[in-house]
Description:
alpha/beta, 2 helices, 2 domains, 2,3-Dihydroxybiphenyl 1,2-Dioxygenase, domain 1, 4-stranded mixed β-sheet, globular, single chain
Amino acid sequence: MIKGICVDNIAIDCKDAVKLRNFYAELLGWESFIMYDLPALRSQSGLELVFLETDFEYVKPVWPEEIGKQQKQMHFGFQVDDLPTAVLQAEALGACKAESQFGGSYLVTMFDPEGHPFCLHAK
């Protein structure tokens, strides 16, 4: 292990960095700010998400994965107290529920407005 190493930030490719940052700000309640001239979020623990608009045509990932299609580049998992309510709140913010679900009653896979999958897990 490298002495003193820790996760500083996670960069997320997207088509509209401000829109996606605002979605996650509402979803997570994290602080919005600018980092390296880019839209970013910071959690109370200091973890930062940075949103990068791509220089190429952004292609939404396909989930579940399919051979020859754009694969997901990341997948967040968020624990929630009330799963059905969290799903409804995420949808109200612009997320959509994935057609394919594999988590039974304890996990729901969603897509953010740019198509990145994320899961809401019951605690």
